[in-house]
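Weekly puzzle thread! Below is a chain. First person to post its structure in token form gets bragging rights.
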Amino acid sequence: MEPLNTITTRIRESIAMKERMLGDALLLKTTEEAALHLYRVLSEGHRVFFCGNGGSAADAQHLAAELSGRFSFDRAPLPAEACHTNTSFLTAVSNDYSYEQVFARYIEGFGRSGDLLVALSTSGNSSNVLKAMAVARRKGMTIIGLTGENGGKMKEGCDYLLNVPSRETPRIQEGHITLGHILCEIAEKMVFA
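Winning reply:
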């Protein structure tokens, strides 16, 4: 294995995936619509919840912090949180019910009509994310889904499906962070214009 070859290959793959994103008119339009909806949710005083597993959990927490902390300039915090950051809640629900219920119970307890759920899953098939989406739908929340190429089972339940044109988990996650940063930037600028 030659590390330099791996490095250049992965960077080229990332660039190629982002070029596919750039050439996907539907993805670009849906991202614009999702960003405008995120702005409306925040400007009306509603909350944004993020959920995902593994690397998607890290991305969910990262993006929630971009809104609740700051993204590109100093301003008031925005109401955004990742559903998995309360470890006592996470472990209690996993133990007393099941891990499949953790995000659904969180949304059941804290989500309100008019709020937004940003659901992340590279496969689009994470059962605990799907269950959270079902609760969010029942409660009158809007759903932005970030998935891989085919959207998986999530594609049917999203108001805005941002499906990164890749089947490789690392590339999909790179696309999710890019799209997530774009959503945060647009919403932040519009809320604080």
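Puzzle host: Confirmed. Bonus trivia for everyone else. Helices lie at 3-22, 25-43, 55-68, 87-96, 102-110, 127-138, 169-191.
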